[in-house]
Amino acid sequence: MVKRVLLASPRGYCAGVERAVETVERALELHGPPIYVRKQIVHNKHVVDELQRRGAVFVEREGEIPVGATVVFSAHGVAPSVHANSRARSLRTIDATCPLVSKVHAEARHYAVRGYTILLIGHAGHEEVEGTMGEAPDCILLVESVADAERVLPPQTHRLAHLTQTTLSVDDTAEILKVLHRRFPGIESPRKEDICYATTNRQRAVKRLLPAVDLLLVIGSRNSSNSNRLVETARAGGIDAYLIDDENEIEPAWLEGVETVGLTSGASAPEALVLRVLAWFRARGVLEVDELDAIPEDVSFRLPPQIRAGSTSS
Hints:
CATH topology of the largest domain: Cobalt-precorrin-4 Transmethylase, domain 1
Structural class: alpha/beta
Mean pLDDT: 96
Number of strands: 12
Strand order of the largest sheet: 10-9-11-1-12
Helix content: 40-55%
Radius of gyration: 21 Å
CATH superfamily of the largest domain: 4-hydroxy-3-methylbut-2-enyl diphosphate reductase, catalytic domain
Shape: flat
Strand content: 15-25%
CATH architecture of the largest domain: 3-Layer(aba) Sandwich
Order of helices and strands: EHEHEEHEHEHEHEHHEHEEHEH
């Protein structure tokens, strides 16, 4: 029987997600609905559903948006071709790309213009990876795993660099980099690592939690990369872990023989979902809720200039 819930800290929203969600909210206030959003603004079902209720319209491609309408680009970033297509349709664009993703885009351009081959560590099909590869499609090779790192054959190695998707497993990425540095001793690294502070901090917080829990629940949607990495972190540490969108997905069978449940949330999951899960446990007699000491986070990002300008003039 569950007696205690132990909360990881930090958890939930990162600065890039806060900025992206607020960007859509403010755009709706400034311009009124509909505001179009290319892809999901962040990878969380509840956030997307709430913004839809307020008048946001989510589309897969910019070609689906009426000529001259306003579109917000998601936190994951877009390729230069998306900007070009949007200009061709006279769309008013508001770019909510996380500044830490924009940093990786800038690194890709920096290396590409200097004739480098870039090995991008990331997951095929993820929006962030698609956007980064779009910056220099002829120069970037995708590396998804240690096996890929062992067999990748860049066309030249005298100018070789690596970049990283921002939401990867810190441990898995370190293993991939070991292989790349062994095979290509001269490979260059970005001056500051690409995996974002929030991804790193949330994985560290889970590791600190594991010795004290019998099971970990991670609140986050299925397409959330950083949330899935938290599940993997727990399982790699020998603790059962499950990804849930909300309390309705908790399976009572998971809790059999469990006394302490660990609880965390991915960087795109709002704290309101954590409170709902805690209420679910309290309704079943769990009275003890504790929280680990937090890893400090004081990062914040300014809203896009189009939103700041609109707010100033209103």
